[in-house]
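can u do me a favor
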């Protein structure tokens, strides 16, 4: 129930100790706060910054007007970790990364990445495993000066995240922009709505970089709607056969232009992508949103999404709660 604004650095910062040290920062609750206009002295600020801290709940916050991240979950990439801590192997690396089992949910995040690039409104880099992004609204993200803007950026060594029931629209930048940029291992994207708009090159992008694995991703029961005719469904800047474990039961709708996938510089038609055994039950159809012009992405009765098991995303509980103090501004 706090109003946090005009900070030099982060709005809220949860900081543990470097890898190899005891896990001392965990089980914090950051709930029902209005966090905005932070990062006034330090440009790589976040509304909520988690570093080497786990089992936290970041819920029902309104976060906006930040030069870089809305939320970020940090740790250390394996390639760096193994030089810092004796005894680290790829198999046991997560034992040393305490930013795990965090829940970031029911937050309204917008007007972030305002003076930055190669980032996302919700970002992670080298964290621990098993973090959850659920029921977040992410919109009006990026700027017109820099590239590589994302609604969600699961950056290097982001492993075993579960991303569910989020709605992303309004990501802008000069080039190489997308609703989601996904690296890491075993990340699952289920029952999300991604609106791929002007200046977006893809709905979802992915890249295997610097010997950090990027594989076994799942994209299931999502809705991707394209208002940008030249955008790909997926843009795999490079490709390994184990990159996507499952992609199915999705709804794609592109009123103008063809559906296609970018793979290591080549272009695959949607039909060629399906021939690889993917998207077998996915459909190309208007999802029938209630009022997309007014950003109401609830589904009308008769939506083809329901036949695939896609659930309507309840947005009523997203953002500040009813008991947010009346003496503080909500917007």
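np, heres the sequence
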């Amino acid at each position: 129930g706090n109003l946090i604004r005009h900070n030099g650095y982060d709005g809220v910062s949860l900081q543990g100790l470097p890898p190899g040290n005891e896990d001392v920062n965990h089980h914090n609750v950051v709930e029902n706060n209005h966090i905005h206009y932070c990062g006034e002295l330090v440009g790589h600020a976040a509304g909520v910054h988690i570093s080497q801290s786990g089992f936290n709940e970041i819920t029902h916050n309104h976060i906006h007007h930040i030069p870089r991240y809305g939320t970020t979950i940090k740790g250390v990439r394996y390639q760096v970790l193994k030089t810092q801590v004796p005894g680290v192997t790829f198999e046991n690396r997560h034992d040393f990364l305490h930013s795990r089992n965090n829940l970031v949910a029911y937050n309204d995040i917008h007007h972030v990445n305002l003076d930055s690039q190669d980032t996302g409104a919700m970002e992670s880099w080298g964290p621990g495993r098993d973090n959850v992004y659920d029921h977040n609204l992410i919109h009006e993200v990026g700027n017109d000066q820099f590239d590589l803007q994302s609604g969600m950026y699961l950056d290097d060594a982001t492993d075993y995240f579960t991303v569910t029931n989020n709605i992303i629209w309004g990501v802008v930048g000069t080039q190489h922009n997308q609703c989601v940029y996904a690296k890491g291992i075993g990340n699952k994207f289920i029952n999300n709505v991604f609106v791929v708009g002007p200046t977006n090159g893809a709905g979802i992008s992915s890249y295997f970089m610097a010997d950090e694995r990027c594989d076994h991703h799942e994209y299931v029961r999502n809705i991707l709607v394209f208002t940008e005719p030249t955008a790909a469904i997926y843009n795999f800047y490079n490709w390994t056969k184990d990159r996507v474990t499952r992609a199915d039961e999705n709804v794609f709708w592109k009123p103008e232009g063809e559906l296609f996938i970018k793979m290591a510089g080549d272009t695959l038609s949607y039909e060629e992508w399906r021939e690889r055994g993917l998207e077998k039950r996915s459909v190309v159809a208007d999802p029938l949103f209630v009022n997309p012009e007014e950003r109401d992405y609830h589904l009308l009765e008769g939506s083809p999404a329901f036949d695939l098991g896609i659930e309507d995303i309840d947005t009523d509980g997203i953002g500040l709660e009813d008991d947010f103090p009346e003496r503080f501004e909500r917007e």
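DSSP finds three helices and 32 strands in the chain. hope that helps!!
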